[in-house]
Amino acid sequence: MRASSRSGALARVAKAQGWFYLVSGAWPWISGESFQAVTGRKADFWLAQTVGLLLAITGVVLLLAARANRITREIMLLGALQAGALMVVDVYCVFQPRTTHSYLLDCVVELGIVIAWCLAARAATPPSTE
């Protein structure tokens, strides 16, 4: 696999996650009612907005890194670890009062993101010349 193909896989994962986080992070700001209709009513909605803003910021960083084709180890860790952390939160939240099973769907999406980062990183590792 050529170096450009290898780095292209990383950029595609960063771009996909970046758009997903930008859109889903903006959602509680754009339409709090529809957000809560899907995820459940929040006692402290400002927390959902705070997390949304942080997700949107991560999305922008991932999109900028993909656009510049500068997917460093730190960018890969940011993407994979943030998705992993959200998986943990999703599993916890699904058992809380006033939440919906939509968190399980997000858990599956976040797992897919972690797997995508692992596969893209593996593909991007240059072959050994031994």
Question: What are the salient characteristics of this protein?
Answer:
130 residues; mainly alpha; elongated
Number of strands: 0
Structural class: mainly alpha
Helical fraction equals: over 70%
Count of folded domains: 1
How would you state the average pLDDT, rounded? 92
Largest sheet: none
Gross morphology is: elongated
Helix segment tally: 5
Q: Secondary-structure element order, as H and E?
A: HHHHH
Topology:
Elements: H1 3-30, H2 32-39, H3 45-67, H4 73-93, H5 102-124
Helix pairs in contact: 1-2, 1-3, 1-5, 4-5
What does this structure look like?
The protein has 130 residues and is mainly alpha-helical. The chain has one domain (3-122). It is 79% helix and 0% strand. It is built from five helices and no strands. The protein has helices at residues 3-30, 32-39, 45-67, 73-93, 102-124. The longest helix is centred in the N-terminal third of the chain and has 28 residues, at 3-30. It is elongated, with a radius of gyration of 16 Å. It starts with a helix and ends in a 6-residue tail after the last helix.
